[in-house]
Backbone:
């Protein structure tokens, strides 16, 4: 999609700090990190949200997940990390190109889910 920010990053039309790339997946540092390690794993295929994922995307999503711990460790997450996929308005998704946030560092991250 020519107007999509992340499609432009994939094409190199907008600069990014790239961590990894293969035929189907692009990985780069978040411009506004929430923790010492904060990068985004995105498919090169423009899929707007997790809601738009279809059966044909099964391998792609599986590969993104399989890549996650390997890249997290290479970025210094030796003792765990958090993975977030914001979806749609309620999920607080701001960029409508599917992305997984990988967030970590040395410190335990704040609790995100409060019960009761
Ligand atoms: P969302 O809120 O959609 O889940 O997350 C979008 C993320 O993209 C945010 O964490 C934001 O900091 C990041 N982001 C937005 N614009 C850019 C950009 O131009 N370059 C990079 N590297 N990250 C961006
Ligand atoms: Zn896109």
Residues:
């Amino acid at each position: 999609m020519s107007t999509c920010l992340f499609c432009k990053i994939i094409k190199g039309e907008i600069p990014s700090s790239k961590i990894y790339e293969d035929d189907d997946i692009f990985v780069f540092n978040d411009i506004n990190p929430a923790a010492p390690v904060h990068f985004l794993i995105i498919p090169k295929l423009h899929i707007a949200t997790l809601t738009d994922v279809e059966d044909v995307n099964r391998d792609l999503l599986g590969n993104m997940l399989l890549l996650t711990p390997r890249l997290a460790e290479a970025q210094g997450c030796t003792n765990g990390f958090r993975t977030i996929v914001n979806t749609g308005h309620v999920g607080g998704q701001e960029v409508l190109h599917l992305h997984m946030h990988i967030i970590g560092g040395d410190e335990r991250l704040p609790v995100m889910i409060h019960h009761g």
In short: The beta strands are 18-21, 25-29, 37-43, 82-84, 100-104. The first strand starts at residue 18 and ends at 21. The pocket of zinc ion (ligand 2) is lined by residues 1, 4, 6-7, 46, 97 (CB under 6 Å). DSSP finds three helices and five strands in the chain.
